[in-house]
Amino acid sequence: MTQSSFNLHTFYSAEGEEHLHVAKATFEQLRDPFAQWVDASVHALKNGKKLLFFGNGGSAADAQHLATELTVRYIKDRRALAAIALTTDSSTLTAIGNDFGFEYLFSRQIEALGQEGDVAIGISTSGKSPNVLKAFETARSKGLTTVGLTGGTGGLLPQYADILIKVPSATTSRIQEMHITLGQMLCGAIEHSLGLVT
Fold first, then answer.
1. What is d(CA 42, CA 66) in angstroms, rounded to the nearest whole number?
2. What's the rounded Cα separation, in Å, for the pair 198 and 7?
3. What residues form DSSP beta bridges with 149?
């Protein structure tokens, strides 16, 4: 039997170093787009509009996580904020996938639920997810602001996103780590900006 050359301590250190490197670059480069994301979200919520989160796989989990932080609480108890994850209704998702195709998974829901002034927040580490891009097409046609969370080159998202949060890394796990970090920062910034916490 061949003995593995895997060294857990080396792996541990390398992962930590890469995470810290990407985090540092992210915070250096994304201050302005993050501020735009916060401003757009606060403006929508102040005007009775909502935030719509969506993505696939791990990004679907992030969408649900962030919508929950807003509708329930983040820092402390306060009034509920209007946020929906378009990744949670299994009947809707399977019906759309079966009847229209996977590409329409989120766009069909935005067609039904999206209103002018809402913010559509699509998460795609590659920036190439067809259902996220299709959702942004529909969102723009209805007057929603589109926010794209991605990484690497951004794929096709720069063409579709009004605000682009592009993590400076090509490693999916590092991109996802920054997405949830920035997403939780968004929740905190929204609460403070709306005067819900002190």
1. 15
2. 46
3. 123, 165
Is 113 inside any structural domain?
yes
Alpha-carbon distance 181 to 183, whole Å?
5
pLDDT per position as a tens digit, 43-71: 999 999 999 999 999 999 999 999 999 99
The total of structural domains in the chain comes to 1
Question: Does residue 117 lie within any of the structural domains?
Answer: yes
pTM over 0.85: yes
Place of tokens 């909502």: 50
CB atoms within 10 A of CB 137: 13
Alpha-carbon distance of 62 to 87, in angstroms, equals: 10
- 42: containing domain: 30-193
Q: Is 65 inside any structural domain?
A: yes
String of b and e for 23-34 (b: at least 16 CB within 10 Å)?
beebeeebeebb
